[in-house]
Design brief:
It is built from eleven helices and twelve strands. The chain has 353 residues and is an alpha/beta fold. A ten-stranded mixed beta sheet has the order 2-1-3-12-11-4-5-10-8-9, sandwiched between helices. It has a two-stranded antiparallel ribbon with strand order 6-7. The protein is globular, with a radius of gyration of 20 Å. The chain starts with a strand and ends with a helix. Bound molecules: adenosine-5'-triphosphate (ATP). Adenosine-5'-triphosphate binds next to loops. The site of adenosine-5'-triphosphate (ATP) has 13 residues, from loops.
């Protein structure tokens, strides 16, 4: 399979190479052949090629099966047309409508809760996000100096697609899906999202389906996260709830993600580019490495390639063992290890089985 390597910015230059190291080890151990294609993006691309998103990027990505995208530090980009934030463009262009974000606690790691094993499926391309909910212009505008209007877009097709991805995921797990919304207030927008979820519930009678109002859900997530399996929600609610959920199990370094669409998938951790710790070899590579594992699993299932599914599972097992051993962990996990040391330890465990 062909997989792109897009480092992104700041800690992306540290955690993405560790992810490639681990995926390479997993591919070798399982007989999966990966052709890697490094593609410049972000600040590095701007400095060398004059744009954060070189003109041939979309074309090059289209020829791949999927890619790793490191975190993007777009807030630090120069405010010029040549320096757009690349990731909304990628999510939109490839219709990466489902942002799948697992949250898992580990018994040996400090965590607000134990026994957490849930996945939030966040709609990725519409909702309130003004940089991607319209095809031209921007979904947020200011008619006068003192008035701002933000537009939220909810479509039947978008809701149905993300709900289907969530139902399918729930079917492969504990068969429990919670749709999070606020149709008590957003009667039309959230109402349409929930209607589409209900239509699909009829197609998945083996999945226990329930609804939760977003504010109640936010509270329950903090108090009893163990009661959830798969959660599906609209873009903005998902953005907030995934960070909240990551906080329950050790912070942003523990929050992987996969943006999946009809033809491609992009491994992208939930966290940002963490400029405060960049260049110090202390960033936690867990989220990016687990995103890479998710990409292998997704590609394996899609192509009926059992070896690729096993490569992903092998990474999961290796990560679990390294966390349990506790020796190579980065400072955010209470350890004294380094990014590269943790990557090495995981790659070694991958080779061991
Ligand atoms: P964005 O808005 O782009 O998502 P953000 O404002 O949420 O970014 P992050 O860059 O994600 O900010 O960082 C938030 C905090 O979490 C910072 O203190 C950062 O150091 C920490 N952090 C983020 N990712 C990691 C990681 N992989 N390992 C360790 N700490 C991390």
């Amino acid at each position: 399979m062909k997989i792109g390597i897009l480092n992104g910015d700041d800690i992306g230059h540290e955690i993405v190479p560790e992810t490639v190291k681990v995926m390479h080890a997993a591919a070798q151990a399982t007989g999966v052949r990966i052709d890697w294609e490094p593609i410049p993006i972000g600040r590095t691309a701007y400095d060398s090629l004059g744009t954060t998103m070189p003109a041939d990027t979309l074309q090059r990505l289209a020829a791949l099966d999927g890619w790793l995208l490191g975190p993007i530090g777009h807030m630090a980009y120069p405010k010029v047309p040549e320096a757009p934030n690349p990731h909304p463009i990628l999510r939109k262009h490839f219709d990466l409508y489902a942002n799948i974000r697992p949250v898992k606690s580990y018994p040996t790691l400090k965590s607000v809760h134990q026994g957490v094993d849930l996945v939030i499926v966040r709609e990725n391309n519409e909702g309130f996000q003004p940089d991607r909910n319209v095809v031209a212009g921007c979904g947020e505008f200011r008619p006068t100096h003192d008035v701002t209007i933000s537009v939220r877009v909810i479509t039947r097709a978008g809701s149905s697609k993300v709900a289907r991805a969530a139902f399918e995921l729930a079917r492969s797990r504990r068969r429990h899906l919670t749709a999070v919304h606020k149709d008590t207030v957003f009667k039309l927008g959230c109402g349409m999202f929930v209607e589409e979820c209900h239509k699909l519930a009829a197609e998945f009678p083996d999945v226990r389906f329930e609804e939760a109002i977003v504010d109640t859900f936010a509270m329950r997530l903090v108090m009893t996260p163990q009661r959830y399996d798969v959660v599906v929600t609209t873009n903005m609610f998902g953005d907030i709830l995934t960070d909240e959920a990551a906080g329950l199990v050790g912070g942003l370094g523990m929050a992987p993600g996969l943006c999946a669409g009809p033809t491609h998938a992009m491994a992208q951790a939930t966290h940002g580019s963490a400029p405060d710790i960049s260049g110090r070899n202390i960033a936690n590579p867990y989220a990016m490495i687990m995103s890479g594992s998710m990409l292998l699993d997704w590609l394996g299932r899609r192509n009926g390639d059992a070896a690729a599914v096993e490569a992903g599972a092998r990474i999961d097992r290796a990560v679990q063992r390294v966390i349990q051993q506790g020796e190579a962990l980065t400072p955010d996990l209470g350890g004294t290890g380094t990014t590269s040391g943790m990557g090495d330890a995981i790659a070694e465990e991958v080779r061991a089985g």
